[in-house]
């Protein structure tokens, strides 16, 4: 996954959330719960690191 850079958090109120989960369904369920509580950018795919367990999802 790419590094978080200054543009991701350039203004007060901006944040980046990285979710580590066992599978895609769990990661998207966490994203949906966050989205029910605050404005959040859509995330349409997860990332898998070869040889590492689980998936990662970045949203903000």
Helix content: 10-25%
Number of strands: 2
Radius of gyration from CA coordinates: 12 Å
Assign the structural class, choosing from mainly alpha, mainly beta, alpha/beta, alpha+beta, or little secondary structure: alpha+beta
Low-confidence stretches: none
Largest sheet: 2 strands, antiparallel
Strand order, sheet with most strands: 1-2
Query: Could you give the order of the helices and strands?
Result: EHE
In short:
It is built from one helix and two strands, in the order βαβ. It is of the alpha+beta class. Strands 1-2 form a two-stranded antiparallel ribbon.
Architecture overview:
By secondary structure, this protein is α+β, with helices and mostly antiparallel strands. It contains one helix and two strands, in the order E-H-E. The protein has one helix at 24-37; strands spanning 17-21, 55-59. Strands 1-2 form a two-stranded antiparallel sheet. The chain is flat. The mean pLDDT is 86.
